[in-house]
Each structure stands twice: as structure tokens, then as C-alpha cells.
Amino acid sequence: MESNTVFLPVILAVVGLVFMFIKMSWVKKQEAGDEKMKSISKSIKEGALAFLNAEYKLLLIFSIIASIALFIISQLVDTTHWIIVVAFIIGAIFSALAGNIGMRIATDANARTTEAAKTSLPKALQVSFGGGTVMGLGVAGLAVLGLSLFFFLFVTMFVTGEGSFYKEMTVALEALAGFSLGAESIALFARVGGGIYTKAADVGADLVGKVEAGIPEDDPRNPATIADNVGDNVGDVAGMGADLFGSYVATVLAAMVLGNYVVRDMSTTTQFTDAFNGMGPILLPLVIAGVGIIASIIGTFLVKIKDNSAKEAEVQKALDLGNWTSILITLIASWFLIQWMLPETLKMSFFGEGIQEVPSRHVFYSGMIGLAVGALISTVTAYYTSLGKKPVLDIVQNSSTGAATNIIAGLAVGMKSTFLSVILFAAAIYGSYALAGFYGVALAASAMMATTAMQLAIDAFGPIADNAGGVAEMSELEDHVRERTDILDSVGNTTAAVGKGFAIASAALTALALFAAYVTFTGIDGINIFKADVLAMLFVGGMIPVIFSALAMESVGKAAMEMVQEVRRQFKEIPGIMEGTGTPDYAKCVDISTKAALKEMILPGLITIITPIIIGLLFKAEALGGYMAGVCVSGVMWAIFQNNAGGAWDNAKKSFEAGVEINGEMTFKGSDAHKAAVTGDTVGDPFKDTSGPSMNILIKLTCLVGLVIAPILGGHSAESHASNTQLIKEVQVESELKDNEKSVATITTTVVKDGKKESKVIKVEGTKEEVAQAIKKVQE
Amino acid sequence: MESNTVFLPVILAVVGLVFMFIKMSWVKKQEAGDEKMKSISKSIKEGALAFLNAEYKLLLIFSIIASIALFIISQLVDTTHWIIVVAFIIGAIFSALAGNIGMRIATDANARTTEAAKTSLPKALQVSFGGGTVMGLGVAGLAVLGLSLFFFLFVTMFVTGEGSFYKEMTVALEALAGFSLGAESIALFARVGGGIYTKAADVGADLVGKVEAGIPEDDPRNPATIADNVGDNVGDVAGMGADLFGSYVATVLAAMVLGNYVVRDMSTTTQFTDAFNGMGPILLPLVIAGVGIIASIIGTFLVKIKDNSAKEAEVQKALDLGNWTSILITLIASWFLIQWMLPETLKMSFFGEGIQEVPSRHVFYSGMIGLAVGALISTVTAYYTSLGKKPVLDIVQNSSTGAATNIIAGLAVGMKSTFLSVILFAAAIYGSYALAGFYGVALAASAMMATTAMQLAIDAFGPIADNAGGVAEMSELEDHVRERTDILDSVGNTTAAVGKGFAIASAALTALALFAAYVTFTGIDGINIFKADVLAMLFVGGMIPVIFSALAMESVGKAAMEMVQEVRRQFKEIPGIMEGTGTPDYAKCVDISTKAALKEMILPGLITIITPIIIGLLFKAEALGGYMAGVCVSGVMWAIFQNNAGGAWDNAKKSFEAGVEINGEMTFKGSDAHKAAVTGDTVGDPFKDTSGPSMNILIKLTCLVGLVIAPILGGHSAESHASNTQLIKEVQVESELKDNEKSVATITTTVVKDGKKESKVIKVEGTKEEVAQAIKKVQE
């Protein structure tokens, strides 16, 4: 009966999706306000969908090319079945669908939040967070559903019991990697394209509107104002959603691949069996993800405030309560799931140390490390980017001596913030590996990602509140409405910064789990950077995130310039626009942002996908591993640096709104120091919203592409398994296995190498199990 | 007779030093101008020496601590003799001496250049370049002299022929590493401390002088003006000199260490012998360095211009002619040296590919790769930072929309400049390794560094010309004097940017050669980043350059603020200072810069030295290797990024002096765009003069510290040689070696591992040499 556990995650995912639909219809039933509000909300929605539709067209072309490439790979490689193409396409569709659902509900929820804020702050929170919940559950539900169904299908297709379980499962998981690749490809378009879109619109709207025409933010006379509000959704809702969808799927996949190695290592003497058809360690990450959805649903019920007098602190407390509750439930559930699904003692091969025994509770501790490090990195991020904390205050102080010192201080804050984050991250790798090998590392990532639904609900609520404020402004509502949405928006800014910390931490751990899966997939003996080609590629990999960031930043500049020219044109050519009698052509601005964003993302996108393929084909598997490591190390640094510098600059500028004390004097908006802080914020905008978050996609996609092409690379050097198989002529084993007595075996391996014949005789003495294990190892 | 070749580099070094003294007395004999000029020059000299003296005090404390630490290491480890302490101290003294000579001549040459410029531009070039030549020859001569004498001493002490040549030579080279460590430690103080000094004085002088008091640059009424001019010498002369002294010594050392492995690999059957007591491959790098000194001297004779009508292009051409001539001579000489000193066919063990035969001309080709890549990286650097080229013009264009877009454009230029530099660098690693293994990589670095004397002469001439302009300004001389020194200064700016490209390229190759020497020293099986501890340390290593840069940047800010307050105080308290009747207290400003610089460099210095020691002791040799690789990869990116962004911002600002066309309009100094460009330049100052160049020291010192502590770390994993030696119980060899027939050997190795006894029998068949080689390998 328990062998049907494969359906458990399916059921949990469906529960999540059902709850999503209930929540969605509840949000939609809310009052959307007067005609003006409805019309604004409609414009934003249309703009957002216009971006999505344009993106889909580009995606279609990309998917066709990628599908053909995958099909060719599947024809060249034994372990890759053509069905990987189907998995890829469905992965892309599911990810796009999740983004679509999120965008629709976010753009539905904004005006409804504004309307609710007219009478009640608790209701406004309920609506905006409800929108976020729909987004979160959509992403998590579709991810788990897709993964489980495909896994079920592939197991049925490939794990027939005719050949070795391990090899058949490898084929199944290789096909499943297609689903993950599809999901991450969409993330590339959504995160990078969305990042360019949102900043191009923002900068374009500000430069002409605020600076040249002197009209306030979100003023309906500004032709780019709708594009700006669309941008919040495109970047922060769809982009973040696709990013986490990709991480979520990739983490679970990597953990499953590494689970398969645990099964292999446990099958040295006899094939490992358990109540889950011998798939316990492989299924576990999937089930934990499913349970995380339910825990997230429970958590969302706790996110509420009492009355209209609530301030930021109460809203934040409500979000924290929901978040920690769902984390705690997942943690407790994981303890029992691990007891249930894993054998009490696992066997894992540790590099250079042979096969070791690991108690299953160590896997749980690895998960705890993942959760703890995720929370701590978020805390570090919050410290470096929050109002009133030392780093932001430092930047504020340095604004008094001009823009240059503000910039230097901001850069320094971003750079310094890498210290604790990287130490924590390194400790997570070290600790979870020491506990349970790379399976432990993958489980740490899985635990961190388990409550993705809740994380996304909290993340998506921010831009909805931000948009609600925009709707209030554009509809010229009473001040108390904007004040209420501002409370929500302000909390949203903090959660956005923390969310970015979470996103990069999870992306980095995901990438590492994929990296481990890659090394094991290719069958190489690790990645030795003492080989010149591997070392050279480590440097090349380290350079890619830097170039990618530069391209992304420049793209924002170019796209913003196009927007500036269009807004200037409209101000000149459309009569009565400044007097409020003429209507600006919002759609034209949306169109420009859309086209520019998608055009500009092609080059960095191509670099991300094609570079690992070229390196893999030219320099083979181990050098590609070096490249992947270089991308990850450098990518993590540049992501943390850019995200936190950008976040800190933003809040340094915001500090002036309430007034700050500089050299004993209170300083406010409009002062020279404030102007310097605005310069810093403008520099930080592409950092924190475009190039910084793009690093997540870059490192994950690099490792995923590597994993998918792994089977065509094979080992590189002569010692690798892959090339050894061609060289080994003969393995002879003479053994005497005795219970409770010393067993002996003589293993003779004959190898033909460079035309020379070499025999290697290994004599093994020890207990029966030890000898059997050694024989098994040689025979493989 | 040829066995006395060890004296050849000594003789060449002495020739270089003699020529240096001749040049020095020639420069000193030149007219130093009127009393005012002499007094200004004297103040600068006194300030520079005051910095050096303060530095020496700090150094003394540091050297005592480091000496004690080294002595303890030497007592713990068999292969480390206590004499390493002496080598360390002499290395530090030689490096300090080279810096001292350079500073003295540079501060002597400035007023003499000004005086010469009164009548003749060719003479002014001759004097300023003469000063640079003294610096260059002092550095190169002392480096080669120190290395050769110590090598001779250590070979006499340790290579007695009683034990294995390879092991005895290892002890000698390990002691020689102390000399290199001493030199690099001084570089840390000179480069980082000097970098902080020069920018603190510069920013401090500008903020109060130019901005607050409205007096021009180099105005004698500014109390910080002497400190500013001292800073040019402290940062660009002493700092750059110590940096290259360190690189030069470390490169030659690493090449010698790797040469010893070539000797070992060639001694598998019988001990390798040649006309150089079996030390040909070890001596070669030392001899090439010595020949490079002579080639540089010849090159310096070609640096001259015809008459006063010469412009920047002629001066640049004269420098290029000298530079390329010395490179060409070195190249040709290297061809013959390699023919003479290396056997026609070398044997080298390539990782995972066993021992391979390499023709000696491949070593020459590796050297050519080093020279080509050094020149190309310098060209790339020049492209990204030169006036009139696209990157700088892009920044200029982006200045028209304000400081923020200027900053973004500058950051993007710096980031994009990593692309070609890293590709070239990776190609150098890949190519020189493919040709001649890590010995080839080290020879590539050696070839690049061979003409260090010439490179430094060109580098040091810039700040001398800059100072000469300052002296002209402060002495209120006629305009044509300043115009002439400005021509030299302008060329000096270009050579400074190119010099920084050369410095980072050579530092990176040096670090790699040290890294290779480290891996071989520790006897570990390479650096496998598929092990979690190694991977974790790769991330930690990647973070260090980021933190180091942040600390260095902040240090500049703090030190500059102290300077600002002092200058403000003097303006307020010293009567008649602005009217020119009161004399400012220059010495006080020099003192503040000195103290602040040395105080601020302690933390980054400690991080650099202590982190690798902690990691080595806690996580063992392989993890430390991961850390070193992380520091190198990340350090190279951040160095290129910061140097080139800073250089490009600087020239973007300078573009406005001659006027630039922005959107069809000519824009000049004082415009809003120019103000934005000034902001960019201010951000870039610490980038290009403090944190960027510090990366060179960081990566080299990290690898050197690793190399010095290598013997106490031993191998980490069970497969390493170091721990195997404890486990191997017995090696039995039965062999039948026959000429012209098939030889056979049976090697039985018995190992005790985790209480189990394992025997490994290897049967080898092949020619006599092949079998002998295999036996040798196992026995080692």
C-alpha cells in the first residue's frame, strides 16, 4: 500500500491548487471600486498581459530551438529518452501558467486592496495577502503536481526491473531534468526580461515625469505611469514567481537524483528495498515539498491584524507569525516523514572516504541547517538593507558630503554584506555535507524551499500593496486610503529585501545540489582544479556573472532612454496632456518597455545557455564542472553585493522622508544630502531589481544545462569511470565469503592503456559485507 | 665550469645595480632649480621618508611576530630549516631598500625635471625617465641578487648529495620561499598603506582646497598639498615598486620550485644530470631574470625624443621603442638560454596523464605566450581606459543625464573589461600548460616579468612628471614649464593604466604558479572541489577580495575625513594662510595621512595573512587550496573591474578639459555633465589607486602564505601521499629488467587502512624504462 506514496505529493499539490482557486474566487468577489479605479486596474492588467503575450511569442521560438536541441541529445545518448522534450515543454508551460495566474490575481487584487483600504486596513491586508497566497499556491502546487506526475510516468516507463534499478532510475530522472530545464528557461525570460522592463519603465517615468515635468509619482498625466505599475507586477510578481518556481523544481529534482545515489550505495550487496518500492530516499524530497504546501496554507490563516490602528510593526508581526508557523509545521512533519520513508541507517559514498553509514536523523539535521541558514541569511540581508540600521545610516551620513561619498558608502555596504552571508552559506555546505553527504546538501535546500508557497505569498503581497497605492494616487482618493496602503507597501519593501536574500540563498544551494548531481551523472572523479583546463574554466566561469551584470545594467539604460523619448514625444504632441484634458497613450509606453525588455534579454540569455554547452563540448565534463563552480562562486558574490547595495541605497533615500540627523542637524527631502541619496538610489535600482536577481537564474540555469548535457560529455581524463569502461578488458574475482569469519577475495582487473596491458590485483580481507562491497564497487 | 652558472645571475644583477648607481649620480648632478623649488622638493622628500620611517616601525613589529611564527614552523617541520627566518628578514629588508631607493630618486628627480623643462623637453624626459630607470634597476637588481645569493647559500647548505636530490632541493627552495614572503609582506604595507595614503591626501586636499576654499590644485596655501604630492610617490612609486618586486621574486621562486619537479620527473630511472649540477631547469628562470635586466638597460638608451616640439605621441613612441626592444632582446636571449640550459627533451608528469615527454622548445613557446598575453592584457586595459576610445566616450555621454548614469556607465565599463582580460588569461593558463605543464605556466609568468626593470622605469616616470608639474605650480614658474611637464604627465597617465593591467596580469600568473607549487609541495592529489570542505572554502576565498576591497575603500574615506578636519583647522587657526603670508603646517598633514594609512591597513593586512593559516590548520591542505583558488578567481575579477572602472572614470572627467561633443553640443569643464563626471572620478579614485591594486598583493600573499605553511599541513584525504606514507606497511618489488626485450615487474603494496590490511599487486609490462619508471613512482 505504501508503494502508492508516489500519489501523496500529487494529492497534496491538488489540495494546494483547490485552495488556490477558493482564495482566487474570494479575491475576485471583492469590490473593485469606482469606474476610475477599475479602469486603471484594467490598464495595468492589460499591460501586464501584453508583456506576457509578447514574452510567450519569444518563448515559443526559444522552446522550438531548445526542443530540437534536446531531441538531438536524446538521439545521441542512451540514457536520455526523447520524452525529455515533452517534459521540457510541459515544464515551460507550467511555469508560464504559474506566472500567468500570479499576474492576473495580482492585477485583480490591487484595486480591490485600495477599495478595502477605504474602510478597513485589516481587510486591505486580507485582500493583498490573499492575492499573494494565490500566487504562492499556484507556483508550489503546479511545481509539485508537474514533478510528481512526470516522475510517476517516467518510473512506469523506465523502471521496469529488467536492468539495474539505479540505471533505470537514472534514465527516469534524466528525463525529469527536462521539466526543470523548461521551468528555469521561463524564469530566465521572466526574471531578466521582467527586471529590465520594470526598471526601464521606472527610470523612464521618473526622469521625464518627476525631474523634467515636475509631476509626482504615479500621476495619471504621465504616459509611462501605467508601464511603471505594470513593471512592478512583471518584475516582482512574475519574475520572482518564476525564479522560485525554477528553484523549487530544481531543488527537488537534484535531491531526487542524489537520493538515487543513496539507493545505489545501499545496494552494494543486495538491491535495496523498502516499503516504497526501493524509492524512499528518492521520493522523500517530493513528499516534503507536498507537505510544505499544506503547512503554508495553515500559515496563511494566521496572517491577520485586528483593527485600523495597526502600524507596520503589527503587519510585519502577522506575516512573521504565519511564516514561522508554516516553517515549524514543515520541520515537525519532516521529522516523521524521514522516520517513515528512510531506513534507519543510510549508506552513502563520501568522496575519498568510501561508503559510510549515516543515521537517517542526520538527514533531518541537514534540513534544519538549511532552514536555519535560510532564516539567518534573510536576517543578514534585512540588517544590511533596513531603515535605521547601521549600514543604511552610514550611507545617510555619507550623503552629506555629496553623491560620490554616498556611492562609495553604498558599494562598501553591498560588498561587506557578502561576509556573513558567505560564511553562513559555506557553513551550510560544510555542515549538511558532513551530516549526510551531498544528499544532505540537497535536503538542506529542499527544507529551505519547502515553504515556497508561504514565502511567495509574503513576497507577492508587497507589489500588490505598492500597486494599490498607485491606484489610490491615480484615482485621487482621500489621503487616509494612501496612508493605509503605504503601511502595507512599507512592510512590503522589507519583505522584498528579505525575499531577495532568501531567493539567492536558495538558488545557490540549489545550484550546488545540481552541481553535485552533475558530477555524479557524468561519472567523473570529482572536479580537480589542479588541472589547467579546469582551472582556466573556473576563471572563465567567474567572469560570466560580471559580464551578465554589466549587460543587464546597460540594457536598463538603453530601454529607459527609449521610454524617455516616447514620454517626451507624447508631452509635446498630445494636446492638453498636462492640463489633464488629453489622455496619454499608456499602451504605447507599455509596448516600448515590453519590446525593449525582450530584445535586451536575448544576449545575456544566450550567453547563459550557450557558454556551458560550448565549454562542455570543447573541454569535456570536468572543465565544465570548473566553469559551473566559477559561475556559482562569482555569481553568489555579485548577487549579494548588488542586491544589498541596491536595497541599502533605496532605504538610505527613504530615510530622508521622515528626516534624519546628520552632524547634529535634521535633514529632510529636498536637501543636498537627499539629492545625493537619490543618485545612489538610481544607481542601485538596476542593481537590486535587474542584475542582482538575475544572478539566481544564471547560476541555476548554468548548472541545469550542465546536468542535461552531462550524458553526452562523459568523463574527461583517463581515470574517469566513463573512459575506463572502454579500457577494462577483464575483471576476475576469486572470493571466499564466510559468515562470522574472515572473508578473502582476490580481484584481478586487466586494463589496456595506450597499447600496454596492465593487470591490477587487489586482495581484500575483512568481514563478509566489507568484501562483498569491495567486489561490487570494482565490478561497477 | 658551467656548474658555476649559478653566479651568472649574480653578475647580471650586479651589472644592473652598478648601472643604477651611475644613473642615480647623473640624476643627482642635475640642477635642482631655485631655492623655492628646492625647498618644495625637500618637503616632498621629507614627507615621503617620514611615511617610510613610520612604515618601518610598524614593519619591525610585524617582522618580529612573523619571524617567531616562521621559527616555530621551522621547528615543527622537517623540510623547513630555521634559516627561513633569515631569508624572510633579508627579503623584507631588500624590498624595503628597493622602495627606499626608488622614493629617494623619485623625490630628487621631480624638481630637476622641472628645472630641465625650463629649457628643454628632451632633457626633462631624460631626467624623469632616468629617475624611473634607477627605480626599475634597483628593484630588479636587488631581487635577482637576493634570490641568487640565497639560492647559492641554500644549495651549499642543503644539497649535499647525501639524500635524494629532489628532497634536498625542496628544503633549499622552501627556505627560499621565506625571501619571497618577506618581499611580499613589504608589498602589503607599501601597496595597501600607500594606496590609502595617496587617496586620503588627494581627497582631503581637494575637498577643502578646491571645493571649500576655491584654490587650485597644488596651491602652496593648501596645507595638504605636500601630503598630496608625497602620496603620488608613496602610492605610485613605492607601492607599485614593492608590488612588482614581490611579483618578480615570487614568479622566479615558483618557477624554480616547479623546475625541481621537472628534475624529479626526469630522475625516474636514474638521477638526472646536466652541465649545471642537475639544476638546469631550476636555474633557468633565475638566469632569464638576470638577462632581462641587461635587456632593460639596453632598452632605456632608446627612450629619447629629439626636440622641444615633441608632443605626447612622440614621448609615447620613445617609451614603446625602449619597451619593445628590451622585450625582444629578452625573447631572443631566452631561446638560446633554453637551448643551453635545458635538455632537448624534458619529462614532466601531467595530472592524470602520467609522465610525458616535452621538447624544450615548448618551454620557450610558453614564455612567448606569457609575453603575448601580458602585452594583450595591457592593450585591453588601455582600450577600456583611454581618452577617445568607445568605453570612455560612453561614460562621457552618460554624464549628460547626471551622476547616476555616469556611475552606472563606469561600473558597466569596468565589469565588461573583465571579459577579454579573463579570456586571455584563461588562454594563457591553458596554452602554457598544454605546452609544458605548470613549469610552462611559471615560465610564462617569468617571461612576462623578465623586463620588470623596464616596466617599472616606465611606470615610475609618470609620478615623477606629475610631481614635476606640482613643483612648477607651487613655485609659480612660467606657463611653458608646466605645459612641458603636462605632456610628460599625460603620457604617464596612460602608462599608469597600462602598468596596472600588467601588474594584475603578472600577479595572477604568479599566484597560479605559486598555487601549482603549493599543490605539489603538500603532496595532495590536486584540489577536488567536489569535496564539500574544499567547495565551502572556494566560496569563502571568493568572498575575501570583496571584503578586502570594501575595507580599503572605507579606509580611504575615514583617512580623508581626518585630513579634511586638519586642513579646516589650519585655515581657521593659522593667521594669514590664505593671503600667502602665513605658512601652513605641511608636516602635520603628512603625519596625519601617514598614521591614518598605516592604522587602516592593519585589518585588511591581518585578514590576508591570518585567514589562510586558520583555514589550513582547521581544514587541511586541500581545503586551503580551494580557498586560494577562490581568492585568485574573485581577486582577478575585482582587480580588473576596479582598476578599469577607475581608470575610465578618470579619463571621462579629463575628456571635458579639451571639450567633448554631447548630443551635438560641445561641453566643457564646469558644465553639469562635467560635474557628474567629477563625481564618477571621485568614486573611481579609491577603486583604481587603493582597492584595485591591493588585489595583486592579496592574491599573491595568500598563495605565498599557503606555500610557506604547506609542509605543516600535509595531505587531507586518505589517498594523499602524505597520509599514505603513514599507512604503507611494505612495498615489495620483483622485477626483471631486460634491454630490447619485454620487462616485467610485480609490485606488491601492503596498506593498513582503518584497521584493515589491504594488499595491492600491480603487474607492469613494457620496456625497461617504462617498468623502472613505474617502480620509482610507487616507491616514492
Provide structural commentary.
Two copies of one chain form a homodimer. Chain A folds into two domains: 2-717, no CATH class; 724-779, no CATH class. In chain A, the strands form three sheets. A three-stranded antiparallel β-sheet of chain A has the order 5-6-7. Chain A has a two-stranded antiparallel ribbon with strand order 1-2. In chain A, strands 3-4 form a two-stranded antiparallel ribbon. In chain A, helix 3 (83-119) packs across helix 6 and helix 9 (361-385) packs across helix 12. Mean pLDDT of chain A is 86; it is low at 715-729 and 752-756. The radius of gyration of chain A is 27 Å and the shape is globular. In chain A, 78% of the residues lie in helices and 6% in strands. In chain A, strand 1 (345-350) and strand 2 (354-359) form a beta hairpin. By secondary structure, chain A is mostly helical. The first copy, chain A, has 20 helices and seven strands. Chains A and B meet through helix 11, helix 12, helix 14, helix 15 and helix 17 of A and helix 11, helix 12, helix 14, helix 15 and helix 17 of B.
Oligomeric state of the chains present here = homodimer
Number of domains of chain A: 2
Largest sheet of chain A: 3 strands, antiparallel
Helical fraction of chain A equals: over 70%
SSE string of chain A, helices as H and strands as E: HHHHHHHHEEHHHHHHHHHEEHHEEEH
Largest interface, with counts of residues having CB < 8 Å to the other chain, equals: A-B, 89 and 88 residues
Query: Total number of helical segments of chain A?
Result: 20
What is the overall shape of chain A?
Answer: globular
Rg of chain A, Cα atoms, Å: 27 Å
The percent range for strand residues of chain A is 5-15%
Q: Indicate the mean pLDDT of chain A.
A: 86
Alpha carbon gap, first and last residue of chain A: 33 Å
Number of strand elements of chain A: 7
Structural class of the secondary structure composition of chain A? mainly alpha
Subunit structure (chains A, B): Homodimer.
Family (chains A, B): Belongs to the H(+)-translocating pyrophosphatase (TC 3.A.10) family. K(+)-stimulated subfamily.
Cofactor (chains A, B): Mg(2+)
GO cellular component, one term (chains A, B): endomembrane system
